[in-house]
Specification:
alpha/beta, Rossmann fold
């Protein structure tokens, strides 16, 4: 599938899709390198849906590109959209001190990348 828009987020919820429309989605775990390649692709637009400035900093550092914090909603998710979900795993003892993590610690934080492709959002009803 060729996406026209790429979003990056730290989570995914079905609430990101318009309701009550049926949708066809594809989920696939990808590597850090694959995420970088996708973000360097030729897309019309890339949007950040990462709300936390600390998570945005961590994701930016790991991807090597600017992922600005954004409180933007995902109401624009539609057909031919790809969403890269970067799930940052911070050990419980570090959760309250995100801002104290240095770059070396950030480089070793586990991040799971998943690509969610919105193949089709249909206007048909059940």
């Amino acid at each position: 599938m060729i996406a026209h828009w790429v979003y990056i987020s730290d989570s995914f919820s079905l609430d990101m899709l318009p309701y009550p429309l049926p949708a066809t989605l594809s989920f696939r775990e990808i590597s850090l390198e694959e995420a970088k390649e996708i973000l360097q692709g030729k897309y019309e637009t890339t949007h950040s849906l990462v709300g936390s400035p600390n998570k945005a900093h961590i994701i930016s550092r790991r991807l090597g590109c600017n992922v600005p914090p954004s409180r933007r909603t995902s109401e624009h998710l539609r057909s031919y959209v790809s969403l890269i979900v970067a799930e940052v795993s911070v050990p419980n003892d570090k959760r309250k001190i995100w801002e104290l993590l240095d770059n070396d610690a950030i480089d070793h934080l586990p991040i799971k990348f998943t690509i969610v492709e919105i193949v089709e959002i249909s206007a048909r009803s059940f």
